[in-house]
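Field reference: sequence -> structure
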Amino acid sequence: MDSPDPTTRTASRQQGRHAGLDRQRIAEAARTLEPQSLSIQAVADILGVDRKAVNYHVTNLSGLLELVAVDAFSMNFTDVDLSSTADWKEACRAYAFALHDSLMTTGALVSYFRFQDPGDFSMLGPADTVMQRLYDAGFNDEQVGNAIILIVNVAMSAARDDVMVGSDGTHPQVPLILDALRDAYPRQFPALQRSMSGTPSRAPYGPAQLDASMDIVTRGLESILLASQPALSAHS
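Structure field:
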């Protein structure tokens, strides 16, 4: 039996950097797969290249999942424009919701999201706008830095929780906590018992929860700003 023509093998499965791949093409191919079906080999098969060609740009499965998560996020977040939002509180709130909503598009891959491309300035613009509004309001460098990190953390945490909420609107951890409380003594953990008994009526996840979280954040920032203003006046 004749062996396959080496030229044919090379043409059918291009390798390494010579395959003409880039991270965008890999992301586009991966986008067509369900998260549970994602693998470097599956992406290579879609692109018609050797696995090594994909490995040249994405070294392992974790890196591929991060790439797909960032791709899903950036497709939505690139349209975010906060330049017309003048009030610092509204800018903070709008930025948090934009982050949250864009992260939600990553679905089950939300935990793999990382800010990984320093050349993607579209992801930095909204953050810069929010920070400028905080500076304009009178916050100092440390306060602005702390604020933007807090807002990002709140939005990312909310998105991760909301992705986990099932079709019935229930977070998988809530029934576990309720079961544990039912097994506890009646007078154990009174505050937790009281709070969890009201959980179904107060919608602890979703937009209402993020809105409540951002209300706490902005009120806290406002109190910091007001407390620092007398100190500034005393030195002027």
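Note: Residues 10-59 form one domain.
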